[in-house]
Design a protein that fits this description.
Elements: E1 22-30, E2 33-38, H1 45-48, E3 56-60, H2 64-74, E4 79-82, E5 88-93, H3 95-109, H4 117-120
Antiparallel strand pairs: 1-2, 1-5, 2-3, 4-5
Helix pairs in contact: 2-3
Length: 128
């Protein structure tokens, strides 16, 4: 008597643990502006459209004091490494820290007008 066992997919040998997002940003000074590169590990969706196919944006004006203010206001931690040539590598690990760094990068790539939620006040419907 032959019995057929039901099909069961094989379990992976080891389950992959999802690691928290890691955002790595490399900023290289070129004249008065910066060339900004995103690391390949994780690119937040809100930054994908702001960078080219290679994860690069140029020219970008960066405000380092604004970075410090925004990260402190968010309670976010990040690492900053300055190279001998003057380039800066920024790394934020974890969802909230990576999101805070992504917001700063997106703001740096914006039109230059920087606003906060407090600038708009309470939301009101448009009068028509």
């Amino acid at each position: 008597m032959s019995s057929v066992l039901p099909f069961r997919p094989m379990e992976p040998a080891t389950r992959r643990r999802e690691s928290p997002p890691l955002l790595n940003v490399f900023c290289m000074k070129e004249g008065e502006a910066w060339r900004v590169h995103l690391g390949p590990d994780w690119i937040p969706p809100e930054l994908e459209r702001l960078f080219d196919y290679n994860g690069e944006a140029y020219p970008v004006l960066l405000d380092w004091e604004d970075l410090e203010r925004q990260m402190q206001a968010s309670g976010a931690q990040y690492q900053s490494h300055l190279s001998h040539a003057g380039s800066v590598e920024l790394t934020a690990q974890g969802a909230s820290s990576a999101a805070a760094l992504a917001r700063w990068v997106a703001g740096a790539l914006a039109s230059g007008i920087r606003t906060t939620d407090e600038d708009f006040g309470p939301s009101e419907p448009a009068a028509g």
